[in-house]
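User: Let's play a game. I give you a shape written as C-alpha cells, and you guess the letters that built it. Ready? Here's round one.
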C-alpha cells in the first residue's frame, strides 16, 4: 500500500500524501488551510491536491498534531498522533459537519464571550453585574484558574474582581477557547490548577474582507456595532476590528429593574503578520475601554476600566538540527480600573455608611515566552516563560460629614510578582495501543512589596519579618489513552500540582469582599497549596451520535481560605485573614451527548455536577454550582435555522456557613429560542432571538448577592460580509 502512494506522487507532482508517522497508513479527512483561507481535505488515500501557487499550508486533524509547511512541499508528510487529554475546545466559527465531541462550535452574531463559555459543561460564570463575568471551572476560579490571552498573562487590577481578563476581549476577536479542566498544562501560561486559554484570530494572507455587524435588544436597550476587516497579500496581512456595546439597566422577570446594571464598552484590535520562507512575525494590539459600569451587588460602581495589550511573536517554521519549529513571544499589558460610589445612597446602606469610597487599581505586566517542538516526530514540546507584574491599589474613605478628615488606604502598594516557568511534555506509545503523555513543569515565584511602609504594616500585624523568599511550585501530569475498538476512546489522567499563593492572597488589604461579606487581610507567609487530581473519560463516536462522559476527583492540602480574626474584628466590622486551613475536596461528573435525529435536526445535551468540601473547617466549599444541564436543538429548514434551548438547575442546599455568608438557591429552568437565516450567498446573516421566553425569575447559585437573570428579552442582529 505504501509503495502505491509513492507511485501516485510520481505521477501527480502537485499532490502530497499524509501518512501516520507510526504505522505509515494514510490519513483521511485532514484539513489543509492555505494562506488565503482556502480549505483542502485529504481523501481516503491521504492525498491532498496542491496548486503551484500555494506557498504555505497548515495541516490539521483532530487526532494529530497540527503542522505548518512551506513551498516547496515534500512528497510525503508524516503526521504524529496526539493524545486526547480531556481539553475542551470551543471553536468560534460556523459549525463543521461530523465535529468530534470535544469540539464545541457555535456561531451567533456577536454572541458575548460569556455565552460562548456557558456552552461547556463544568464551567460556570460568577456574576456581579451585567458586565465582566468571572469564569469558574469545576469549582476553581480566580487564583486557582489560570487565564491567558494569546499566551499573555493578564493580572486584574480590581480587588473586588470587577475585571477578570475575559472582560477585555470580544467574540469578534476570538478564534478558539481552550479549557483545561484536569490540570493547567506545563506548556501553557499560569500558576493555577486548571486553565482557560483564549486564542485570538490572526490576519490571513491573500484574503480581502470586510464584515459589519449590528444589533439591538429590548428592554435594556442593549445595542452594539462592530466592524472587522482583513487585507492580505503574498507576504503581508493585517486584520483590524472595532466594536462598541452599550446597555441600560436590565430587568429581571415582571419588569423588575436592576439599578446600576448598565455599561458602555469600546474594544479595538489590530493584528499584523509578515511571512517569510523560514519564519512569520505577528504583531498584536488590543485596546479595551469600558465606562459607567454598574455593579448592583457591590458597594460601588466602576467609573472606568482600561486595558492595553501589546504582543509580538516570531515563529520559526523551517527545521534546523534540533527543532522542527519554535517561537519567541514578548508582550506587555496594563490594566487600570477606577471605582466610585458617588451615584449611590451611601447614607442609608448597610455597610460603610455615610462615606464615599473611590478606589483605583493598576497592574503592569511584562512577559517573554519561548516554545519549541523537537524533530523527534514532534513528540517533545518545550515551554519557557518569564513574567514580571506590578500591582497597586488604593481607596479614599471620604465621609459625608465634612468636619471629619478623609482617610487614605492602600489595598496594594508596589506589590511585584516575578515568575519563571519551564515545562515540557512528551508523547510515546506503550504496549497494546496505549498512548502516554507525561507533562511536567517547574515554576519559580517571587512576590514582594517595594514599599517599605506597606511591608511594615504586615510585619506589625503578624509580628514577623517579610523576608522576600523565593518559592517553587511543581506540576506533573500523565495521560494514558487508547482506542478500544468499537467501545470508543478511553483516557485516564492523573496530576499532582502545587500552587504559589498569588499577590492578593499574600499582600492585599481591602474593604468588604462581597463573596462572603468580610474585610480581608493578606498573609505573606502562606504555604503553597497542593492538589492531586484524577479524571477518567470515555468518548464514543458513531455515525448518528457522539458521547463523552468524564468523572473527576481533586483533593487539596494546605487549602487557602479566609479565616475569621477576632482580634481585628469589632462589633461593626468583621475581618478575615488568608490562611492555610488543611484539606478540601472536589468531585463530580460531566456528560455530553450529540445526536443527529434526522438529516435536518440535531440535538446537544449536557449535564454536569460538582461537590466541594472544606474538610479542614468541616464546611462546604462556597459557590459550587449544583446539578445543572443544557439542551439545544438545531432544526434546519428552508426558511432558516431554529434553535430552541433549555437551561436548568437543581436546588443547591450544600452551602458554606463558616468561610462565607452564602444562601441556598432554588431549582429553575429557562427556555430560549432563536432563528437565523442567511441571504445573498451567505453574505447577509440575520438572527432574531427571545431569551427567557416565559419570563421566569431565576437566580443562579454562583451569582453574587442573589443577582437575578435577565427577564424576557427580544434581540435582533444583522451581519453583512464583503469579500
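Assistant: Ready! My guess for every position:
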Amino acid at each position: 500500500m505504501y509503495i502505491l502512494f509513492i507511485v501516485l506522487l510520481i505521477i501527480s507532482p502537485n499532490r502530497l500524501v499524509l501518512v501516520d508517522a507510526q504505522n505509515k497508513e494514510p490519513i483521511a479527512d485532514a484539513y489543509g488551510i492555505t494562506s488565503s483561507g482556502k480549505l483542502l481535505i485529504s481523501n481516503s488515500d491521504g492525498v491532498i491536491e496542491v496548486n503551484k501557487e500555494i506557498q504555505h499550508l497548515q495541516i490539521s486533524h483532530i487526532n494529530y498534531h497540527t503542522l505548518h509547511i512551506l513551498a516547496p512541499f515534500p512528497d510525503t508528510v508524516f503526521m504524529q498522533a496526539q493524545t486526547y487529554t480531556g481539553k475542551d475546545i470551543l471553536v468560534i466559527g460556523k459549525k463543521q459537519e461530523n465535529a468530534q465531541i470535544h469540539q464545541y462550535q457555535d456561531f451567533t452574531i456577536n454572541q458575548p464571550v460569556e455565552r460562548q463559555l456557558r456552552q461547556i459543561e463544568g464551567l460556570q460564570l460568577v456574576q456581579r453585574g451585567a458586565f465582566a463575568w468571572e469564569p469558574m471551572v469545576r469549582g476553581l476560579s480566580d487564583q486557582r484558574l489560570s487565564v491567558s490571552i494569546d499566551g499573555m498573562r493578564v493580572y486584574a487590577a480590581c480587588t473586588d474582581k470587577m475585571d477578570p481578563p475575559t472582560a477585555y476581549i470580544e467574540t469578534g476577536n476570538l478564534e478558539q477557547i481552550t479549557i483545561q479542566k484536569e490540570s493547567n498544562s506545563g506548556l501553557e501560561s499560569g500558576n493555577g490548577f486548571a486553565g482557560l486559554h483564549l486564542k485570538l484570530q490572526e490576519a490571513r494572507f491573500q484574503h480581502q474582507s470586510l464584515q459589519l455587524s449590528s444589533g439591538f435588544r429590548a428592554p435594556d436597550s442593549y445595542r452594539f456595532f462592530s466592524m472587522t476587516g482583513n487585507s492580505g497579500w503574498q507576504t503581508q496581512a493585517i486584520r483590524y476590528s472595532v466594536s462598541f456595546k452599550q446597555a441600560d439597566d436590565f430587568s429581571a422577570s415582571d419588569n423588575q429593574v436592576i439599578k446600576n446594571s448598565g455599561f458602555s464598552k469600546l474594544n479595538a484590535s489590530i493584528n499584523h503578520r509578515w511571512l517569510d520562507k523560514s519564519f512569520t512575525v505577528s504583531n498584536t494590539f488590543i485596546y479595551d475601554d469600558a465606562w459607567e459600569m454598574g455593579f448592583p451587588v457591590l458597594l460601588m460602581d466602576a467609573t472606568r476600566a482600561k486595558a492595553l495589550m501589546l504582543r509580538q511573536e516570531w515563529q520559526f517554521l523551517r527545521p534546523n538540527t534540533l527543532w522542527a519549529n519554535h517561537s519567541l513571544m514578548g508582550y506587555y499589558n496594563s490594566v487600570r480600573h477606577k471605582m466610585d460610589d458617588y451615584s449611590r445612597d451611601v447614607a442609608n446602606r448597610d455597610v460603610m455608611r455615610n462615606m464615599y469610597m473611590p478606589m483605583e487599581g493598576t497592574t503592569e505586566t511584562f512577559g517573554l515566552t519561548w516554545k519549541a517542538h523537537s524533530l523527534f516526530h514532534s513528540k517533545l514540546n518545550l515551554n519557557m516563560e518569564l513574567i514580571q507584574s506590578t500591582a497597586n491599589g488604593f481607596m479614599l474613605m471620604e465621609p459625608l460629614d465634612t468636619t471629619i478628615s478623609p482617610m487614605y488606604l492602600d489595598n496594594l502598594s508596589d506589590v511585584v510578582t516575578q515568575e519563571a516557568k519551564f515545562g515540557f511534555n512528551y508523547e510515546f506509545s506503550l504496549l497494546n495501543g496505549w498512548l502516554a503523555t507525561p507533562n511536567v513543569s517547574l515554576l519559580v515565584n517571587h512576590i514582594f512589596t517595594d514599599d517599605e511602609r506597606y511591608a511594615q504594616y504586615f510585619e506589625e500585624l503578624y509580628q514577623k519579618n517579610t523576608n522576600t523568599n523565593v518559592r517553587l511550585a511543581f506540576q506533573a501530569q500523565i495521560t494514558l489513552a487508547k482506542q478500544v475498538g468499537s467501545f470508543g476512546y478511553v483516557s485516564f489522567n492523573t496530576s499532582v500540582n502545587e500552587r504559589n499563593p498569588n499577590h492578593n492572597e499574600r499582600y492585599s488589604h481591602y474593604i468588604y469582599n462581597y463573596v462572603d461579606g468580610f474585610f480581608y487581610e493578606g498573609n505573606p507567609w502562606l504555604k503553597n497549596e497542593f492538589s492531586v487530581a484524577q479524571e477518567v473519560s470515555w468518548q464514543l463516536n458513531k455515525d448518528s451520535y457522539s458521547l463523552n462522559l468524564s468523572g473527576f476527583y481533586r483533593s487539596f492540602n494546605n487549602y487557602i481560605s479566609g479565616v475569621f480574626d477576632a482580634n481585628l474584628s469589632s462589633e461593626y466590622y468583621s475581618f478575615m485573614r488568608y490562611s492555610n486551613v488543611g484539606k478540601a475536596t472536589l468531585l463530580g461528573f460531566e456528560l455530553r451527548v450529540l445526536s443527529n435525529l434526522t438529516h435536518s435536526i440535531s440535538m446537544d445535551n449536557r449535564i454536569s455536577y460538582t461537590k466541594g468540601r472544606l474538610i479542614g473547617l468541616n464546611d462546604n466549599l462556597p459557590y459550587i454550582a449544583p446539578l445543572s444541564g443544557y439542551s439545544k436543538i438545531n432544526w434546519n429548514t428552508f426558511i432558516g435555522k431554529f434553535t430552541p434551548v433549555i437551561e436548568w438547575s437543581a436546588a443547591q442546599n450544600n452551602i458554606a456557613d463558616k468561610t462565607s455568608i452564602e444562601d441556598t438557591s432554588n431549582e429553575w429552568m429557562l427556555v430560549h429560542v432563536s432563528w437565523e437565516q442567511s441571504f445573498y450567498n451567505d453574505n447577509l446573516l440575520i438572527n432574531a432571538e427571545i431569551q427567557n421566553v416565559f419570563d421566569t425569575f431565576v437566580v443562579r447559585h454562583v451569582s453574587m448577592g442573589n443577582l437575578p437573570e435577565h427577564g424576557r428579552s427580544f434581540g435582533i442582529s444583522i451581519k453583512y460580509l464583503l469579500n
